[in-house]
Design brief:
One of its GO terms (molecular function) is electron transfer activity. The chain is mainly alpha-helical. Helix content is about 55%, strand content about 0%. The structure holds heme C.
């Protein structure tokens, strides 16, 4: 009986903790693909190191500018995000293949990538 109750609890917790992941629309993907950081130096790093995964729906990476993907991550705080970017995190490779990136570079990249890109008219 006890096992049964525990199993039921676990199932409830799981259901509560794993909401259906939001999927970006085609419009949101193309907005992500065309957005660039304003700072040319950061834009260069971004195009070299981060854009490939972070604008690809086929990857599990949070899509650039797509709020539902970034909101829960931002709640960890910037320091944690920078640390995860520096050290790697699950399928995210350490420094996102930018071996010469400083923490400051990573933070600027993350700030850009996690800033919501407003959905345009054709984003249905
Ligand atoms: C090879 C693909 C790949 C590259 C290149 C890449 N990322 Fe990622 N990134 C991922 C994936 C996949 C995740 C999601 C990891 C997870 O939560 O499962 C992720 C997650 C993140 C996160 C969120 C970490 C967290 O704590 O939730 C940040 C921040 C991030 N990437 C920053 C960057 C930056 C900055 C660059 C470029 C310097 C970059 N990524 C390049 C694949 C990549």
């Amino acid at each position: 009986m006890r096992t049964l109750i525990m199993a039921a609890c676990a199932a409830t917790v799981l259901a509560a903790c794993t909401p259906k992941p939001a999927t970006p629309t085609a419009g949101q993907i193309s907005a992500a693909e065309t957005a660039l950081p304003a700072d040319p130096q950061i834009a260069k790093i971004y195009q070299r190191s981060c854009i490939g995964c972070h604008t690809a729906v086929s990857s599990t990476a949070p899509i650039v500018g797509f709020a539902p993907a970034w909101q829960p991550r931002l709640q960890q705080g910037m320091a944690t995000l920078v640390q995860h970017a520096r050290e790697g995190y699950k399928a995210m490779p350490a420094k996102g293949y930018c071996s010469d990136c400083s923490d400051q570079d990573l933070q600027k990249l993350i700030e850009f990538m996690s800033t919501t890109i407003p959905a345009g008219k054709d984003n249905s």
